[in-house]
Amino acid sequence: MSPSIPNQRRYILRCSVLWTACLSWPLLLSAQNPPPQQPPDQGTNTRDLKPVRPPESNGATLSGAVPQSYALVIGIAHYEKLPDSAQLHYPDRDAESIYTTLISEQGGQFPANHVHMLTGEQASKANILQELENWLPSVTAPEDRVLIYFAGHGFISAGKGYLAPYDIDLHDIPDTSISMTTLGTLIGTTIKGKWKVLLTDACHSGAITPETTPAELNHLLLDVHQSIFSLTASRDREQSFESPDWGGGHGIFTYYVVRGLGGEADTNGDGIVTADELAEYVHTNVRSATQGRQNPTSERGSFDSNMVLAYDPARAKTPVTTAGLQYGTLVVQTNMDNTELWLDGKQVGIVTKASALRLPGLAPGAHTIKGVHMGYEPDGPREEMVYPGQETTVNLRILIPRQRKQAAVDLLDQAIEDYKKGFEANYRKAEQKLNEAVSIDPNYSQAFMYLGRVENALYEDDKAKAAFEHAIQIDPDYEEARVSYAAALLDQGGLDEAVRQLNAALQRKPDDGTALYLLSQAYARQGDFKNGEAAATRAVKAAPANGEAHFWLAECKRHLNDAANAEAEYRQYLLLTNFNSGAGGQVNYYLAGFLLGMGKRRRAAQQDIWREQQGQANLGICDCEWMQKRNDAAIPYCLKALSLLPSDLWANYRLGLIYVEQANARTQAASGAHSNDTSDVVSLLKEAKTRFSNVIAANPDTDEASRARQYISRIDSALGSP
Q1: What is the residue-wise DSSP string for 619-659?
Q2: For residue 541, is pLDDT > 50?
Q3: Residue 51, phi-psi category: left (phi > 0), alpha (psi -120 to 50), beta (remainder)
Q4: Which of 151, 489, 589, 691 could link 494 by a cystine bridge, Cβ 3.0 to 4.6 Å?
Q5: pLDDT attached to residue 506
Q6: Cα-based angle 134, 137, 143 (whole degrees, multiple of 5)
């Protein structure tokens, strides 16, 4: 394969041609056994990710590595068919916070593609059962860690417990909700794993059936299966409260789960948060915060009390014993809206002038805080004391606009002009000017961001990483820098970190179309096509004129076997990028997205990148037509793809298979008509042989090349027959 094709395209195209399980062998070759077929890529079944290893000093707690980790996170605030009185405020936000914590390097350390999140209308009964009955059982193994989180309504009907999906119908409860009996069976037996966790914030105020009592509901949730660590929001005759007073708006139970997994529950200071530590931390703090009106409850049955729920290596370096201490609260105020607050090195929320941010549940002692706002000098980092059982008010003062030296500003402007011209020589000029700019002004975050983009275009991965990280360190709320960094990470293969950066960017700007389609790209390359589809759908909604959003939505839908809708999205992409002004128009299209960061290497000419993506979209349509058994319609699109990408392995392979299938169909037709005219069959087989030969020439070491050799051998045998 041509080395000029970006890495992410190699991945996507590798997946795109694996829909071969239903291949029909031509009758001319039917007397021989077919070569083995490779099944569709499962993506998320891959089990070769690097495990998380705690320090050796903690060997008494864990022997070996933390196992592979998978999670399903569900949050439903608005219900399609429930009255206004039964709607909730924060479960969607709760779910997003749990997701962020689980994928963070200072929390759960779950690989991003191992965490599926369903919120709002995505959390239908069908989608939830798809994850519980199909996805989790297909990816988990006996030694794995599995976590399921649910925030929304739980209720009882006819003596049975249920969790309410988005589309619950109170007139048909058994068929439109998730029974706890089913949930227990799936988690306890069908889903594999040695550490299984169920966190439920499901007893919110506003019971949706008359017989729902918190006592019975919690009993059912705690008793779903004896091998599960089950932690519920409340117990006997209690409700689960939600309020803007906790972290800017959360269910109180979830707020403390997030704080606990983030490290506050680590009572022995070894860097590890165990099941018992989390249960104790959440129970203590929720009970204290509600004056005993809400008491989270955990099942202390047969689960391993030392199961690792989160691990932060930084905390293990400075162990401190906090067991038995009362927790305290910081109340943070600011003079400027949209001030981002960092606590102990982690982003914890946005503070506005009108609303202070309360952060209860903090271990007593010194905590480091910093307030940041783009374009201003930060307030901090500085230490603030948290006192046991007390609230401490902290004022963040964002006052000093960051001053720029004119010489550095001029150099940045000149560098951007060079950068926009493309090609390596211009990138080198931009690199030199940007290095001069940051030497003159070491706190010039914009200059560092553009330096990262330039180094990425020059394939200087380490330099690009350092520049982007420096920009974000200067301005942690620099959303554009995070998106650009994520695009570079996609080029470099750092998919998990790309998801983290995009997730952080989207918390500040949820409708950023570029961040959303890059997120869909990251998910797709990890094999997580459901989450990729969800992100791409949001991207199309946020920026319907962005062709890339449609392209990645098409990629995800095709891998989910939704060929018809995938084809429509590919066509929309081609429509949006069908320039008639020659190479100049193609260059302008890419320059329009160039400064946003699109997850593509930029050393090649811009028009070459345009040709590549156009070719891949045509190949996608060819594949969709083939999936719908319309080979005649597929061929022109494969040929168009090859006119743009003549040596493309996957377009040649797909076209070779189509010609083989057509030869098979013609043979059947000739046999039925008792005809000896095989000229069409011979011509098709010769075309197929040419395409398979091109596959081998493109990369002789691939599985497709190996199968191509077997096809060629049998075609030669068939063509040599009478």
Answers
A1: HHHHHHHHHTT-HHHHHHHHHHHHHHSTT-HHHHHHHHHHH
A2: yes
A3: beta
A4: 489
A5: 92
A6: 165
- Same domain for 14 and 87, yes or no, is no
The Cα–Cα gap between 520 and 36 comes to 32
Q: Are residues 229 and 299 in the same domain?
A: yes
Provide the sign of the torsion angle of the four alpha carbons 576, 578, 582, 583, taken in this order. positive
Q: What percent helix, strand, coil does the chain show, rounded to 5?
A: 50, 15, 35
Q: CA-to-CA distance for 248 and 16, rounded, in angstroms?
A: 43
**Six-digit token pair at 559?**
């891998």
Q: Residue 658 belongs to what domain range?
A: 7-43+609-719
Kindly state whether residues 281 and 380 are assigned to the same domain: no
Strand order in the sheet with 115-119: 115-119, 69-75, 145-151, 195-201, 229-232, 297-298
DSSP state of 245: T
Q: In this structure, what token pair is assigned to residue 319?
A: 């162990």
Which position has the token pair 């690792």? 308
434: which residues sit within 8 A by CB, 6+ positions away?
411, 412, 415, 447, 450, 451, 454
Q: Which residue did the predictor score with more confidence, 629 or 291?
A: 629
The reported pTM is 0.77
Identify which has the larger pLDDT, 583 or 456: 456
Q: How far, CA to CA in Å, does 562 sit from each of 132, 180, 540, 567, 618?
A: 21, 31, 17, 9, 17
Phi, psi of 107 (to 5 degrees): -135, -115
Separation CA 495–CA 531 (nearest Å): 14
Residue with tokens 């193609």: 586
In this structure, are residues 366 and 384 in contact, taking their beta carbons and an 8 Å threshold?
Answer: yes
* Paired tokens of 168: 């619950």
